[in-house]
From TrEMBL:
Protein name in UniProt: Transcription elongation factor GreA
Domain Transcription elongation factor GreA/GreB C-terminal intervals: 71-141
GO molecular function: DNA binding; translation elongation factor activity
Pfam families cross-referenced by the UniProt entry: GreA_GreB (PF01272)
SUPFAM superfamilies reported in the protein's UniProt record: FKBP-like
Matches recorded under InterPro entries: GreA/GreB_C_sf (IPR036953), Tscrpt_elong_fac_GreA/B_C (IPR001437)
One GO term of the biological process aspect: regulation of DNA-templated transcription elongation
Keyword set, alphabetical order: Elongation factor, Protein biosynthesis
Signal peptide boundaries: none
Superkingdom as given in the UniProt entry: Bacteria
Organism taxonomic ancestry: Bacteria, Bacillati, Actinomycetota, Actinomycetes, Mycobacteriales
Keyword Protein biosynthesis: yes
Length: 162
C-alpha cells in the first residue's frame, strides 16, 4: 500500500484531462507524420513515449481525487497559508504534486523542505526547515483548507457530501 509520500493527489478535472491526453497519445500517429523527416519522426516518437510514461506514473500514483476533509490538517490536496516568522510575509500554496491541477496556485510537494515540514501540521503550529544555504527557516501554518474551497468565488469543485 502506498504511503502518503508515494501517492499523488490531483483534482478530478486534472485526472480526466490526463486520461484524455493519454488516450490521444496512445492513438496511432497520422499518415502525414510518416512524410516528415526521419529524425523529426524519431524525436516526436521519443517525446510522445516520454509523456506517456509521465502520465502513466502520475495516474498510477494517484491514490484518489477526492477533496480532502476540511479538518485543518496539512496534507496533499490542501491549500496552505503560512507566515514566514522572520519577515512576517505570508504565502498561500497547494500541497500536492506539480502538474496535477490547472489552478494558478504555486505547488509545493511533500518532498520539498517546506512541504515536508508542514505535513500533518494544524493551524498555529510552528515548523522549521532547512534552506539550501543551510540556514533554518521558521514558518507558522495559518490555515489549511481543501483545494477548491480556498476561494469563496470558486465553484469548480463541490465540497464532499454536497
Amino acid at each position: 500500500m502506498p504511503t502518503t509520500h508515494d501517492s499523488v493527489w490531483m483534482t478530478p478535472h486534472t485526472r480526466t484531462a490526463l486520461e484524455a491526453e493519454l488516450a490521444g497519445l496512445l492513438t496511432l500517429p497520422h499518415a502525414a507524420d510518416a512524410e516528415a523527416r526521419t529524425d523529426q519522426v524519431v524525436d516526436a516518437w521519443l517525446a510522445r513515449k516520454h509523456r506517456i510514461r509521465e502520465i502513466h506514473e502520475l495516474l498510477s500514483r494517484a491514490g484518489h481525487t477526492r477533496i480532502p476533509p476540511d479538518d485543518g490538517v496539512a496534507e496533499p490536496g490542501m491549500v496552505l497559508t503560512v507566515r514566514f516568522d522572520d519577515t512576517g510575509d505570508t504565502e498561500t500554496f497547494l500541497l500536492g504534486t506539480r502538474g496535477t491541477t490547472d489552478d494558478e496556485l504555486e505547488v509545493y510537494t511533500v518532498y520539498s523542505p517546506l512541504g515536508s515540514a508542514l505535513l500533518g501540521a494544524t493551524p498555529g503550529r510552528q515548523c522549521s526547515y532547512r534552506l539550501p544555504t543551510g540556514r533554518s527557516q521558521r514558518v507558522t501554518l495559518l490555515t489549511a483548507v481543501p483545494f477548491g474551497t480556498h476561494r469563496p468565488e470558486s465553484s469548480t469543485f463541490a465540497h464532499p457530501g454536497s
